[in-house]
Design a protein that fits this description.
Layout lengths: L3 E5 L11 H6 L1 H14 L3 H7 L2 H5 L1 H23 L2 E6 L2 H9 L5 H21 L2 E7 L3 H10 L5 E8 L2 E7 H13 L4 E5 L11 H12 L10 E2 L6 E2 L2 H10 L7 H9 L5 E5 L4 H9 L5 E4 L2 H15 L7
Parallel strand pairs: 1-2, 1-9, 2-7, 9-10
Antiparallel strand pairs: 3-5, 3-6, 4-5, 7-8
Helix pairs in contact: 2-5, 2-7, 3-5, 5-6, 5-7, 5-14, 7-10, 8-9, 10-11
Length: about 325
Amino acid sequence: MNGAALLLPGQGSHFVGMGRDLAEAFPSVREMYERADETVGAKISQLSWEGPEDELTATQNAQPAILVHSYAVWSLISEAVGEVAVAAGHSLGELTAHLIAGTFSFEDALTIVRRRGELMAMAGKQRPGSMAAILGMTLVDVTAICSEVDNGVVVPANLNADSQIVISGDAGAVARASEYASERGARRVLPLNVSGAFHSPLMQSAATGLREVLEATTLSDPKVPVVANSTAESVTGAGAALETLVSQVTSPVRWVECVGTMRGFEPTEWIEVGPERVLSGLLRRVDRALTATAVGTAESVDAFTNRSLTQAGKPGGER
């Protein structure tokens, strides 16, 4: 038995009300949110459950909120999951994957992601940028379009599927590349509501600051392989974890390749752990033969754990 592949969502999966049903149903989750509030020095629980939406969406709040939600779900289903073959997260989710893998503690993870969010927000103010999703064009075509923009920086940033590429950079350069894409047959070009040019060279100051935070944190070798966004290779050492988490801030999220690397571990099942179902959808876009079970609500936690108990009770019975 090779074990499960875990998918951990990133920024954009948050929503007002996230995690509230979990905290109401499970005392351990409420306690986890209390620890998060104390560690971060902010009401992550209140922002998650009640908003307001604009404050929850702020990068420095959304990142710890998503991490807490995903880790809370994991704490409830980990026994039912059993063996884990490999884990990967999209952007912020890579840090959640390392938390699950034991690379750092819960409190350290919260401190890291809170500071990561603050650094990314500051970088966005120092050099304002934007992002846009280009649908219906290949990475080769999008890369070529970006290279033709000669005024400002614009690069492919999220390689989510073969025909779903997000670009990032200076606002004017992103706008020009978006125009080129529309003129050359993109199915859709969607500007994204973000506070900075994430996963682009414009985030260099955030990467430098994150390195300082990580170097001041005790890191352990991950207990399960974590596939890095920036390299699409599995990480099993603390030193590699630090380097790939830093490089990720200015590098593209190579999600299609990450899924390919995870597939090489021949997982017995795929599980998305956290709010919404974004990565479950992307998994199907990358490979129609793959399906993930999304677990993010109290109801889905109960369904998942009950399923596992039922399977374990069958003759010959363990998964």
